[in-house]
Specification:
alpha/beta; UDP N-Acetylglucosamine Acyltransferase, domain 1; 2 domains; 4 helices
């Protein structure tokens, strides 16, 4: 069902059961999956795809040009997964990398006025609360939660199942299963998230050992994580191993506990 006031390009591909609300715009080449709903005043730009059963609320803008100086026209794709909810005023920018992709994984919820910058990769099941701002080239691991008003610096990595407190300013990498708040302050493991995952007690204990191996002492975090992986005293289970391996990659620093 397409409202008479909506503008849908003839080259756009809309699957069965798609609805497009009043005054919305769907440009050439856009693909919209079955059962997706575009509310009133939604704009989906060329090169974007919307997965099945996703909902785009009023005034969403998907696939707009990156927010950068200059008049260059950027190409690349924006991919919104299946069962994604974009609430009012959400913006998702197209990539700057030639042939690149800005992506939002299946089952995500992006609350009102949150922004996903160019070249970002948002994993499955991520929640961005109201007014979250992801700068360019940010990656957010699956199942993470970012509280309202969080600002994330470009090229930052946020690991899977991490939790970021509201209004935090994050310019360093946040490891998986961790909590961060304020300005790059580590607040321990995301124990609430771990309980919801229903991990085995042994896996949680292993993750705690990995956390202490990295953070309970002086020295470079990358070196300490590498040593812990080599010693095999922790990292036996997948969550702890993912936690330690996170420190091996990346080019930025890492969040750390506040100085007492």
């Amino acid at each position: 069902m397409i409202h008479p006031t909506a503008l849908v390009h003839p080259d756009a591909v809309l699957a069965e059961g798609v609805t497009v609300g009043a005054f919305s715009v769907v440009e050439a080449g856009v693909q919209v999956g079955a059962g997706a709903h575009l509310a009133e005043h939604v704009v989906v730009r060329e090169g974007a795809s919307i997965g099945p059963a996703s909902v785009l609320d009023s005034f969403c803008a998907v696939g707009g040009q990156p927010q950068m100086h200059g008049d260059k026209t950027w190409t690349g794709e924006v991919r919104i997964g299946a069962r994604v909810t974009l609430r009012e005023g959400v913006t998702v920018s197209r990539p700057t990398t030639p042939g690149g992709v800005t992506s939002v994984g299946d089952g995500c919820m992006l609350m009102a006025n949150s922004h996903v910058g160019h070249d970002c990769v948002v994993g499955e099941g991520v929640t961005l609360a109201n007014n979250v701002m992801l700068a360019g080239h940010v990656s957010v691991g699956a199942g993470s939660f970012l509280g309202g008003g969080v600002g994330v610096h470009q090229f930052v990595r946020i690991g899977a199942r991490a939790m970021i407190g509201g209004n935090a300013s994050i310019s360093y990498d946040v490891p998986p299963y961790a909590m961060a708040a304020e300005r790059n302050e580590l607040r321990g493991l995301n124990l609430v998230g771990l309980r919801r995952l229903k991990l085995e007690t042994a896996a949680v204990s292993d993750l705690k050992r990995a956390y202490h191996a990295v953070y309970a002492g002086p020295g470079d975090f990358r070196a300490r994580a590498s040593d812990a992986l080599g010693a095999e005293e922790c990292g036996v289970d997948a969550p702890a191993r993912a936690f330690l391996e996170f420190f091996v990659g990346g080019e930025r620093g890492f969040v750390r506990p506040p100085t007492r």
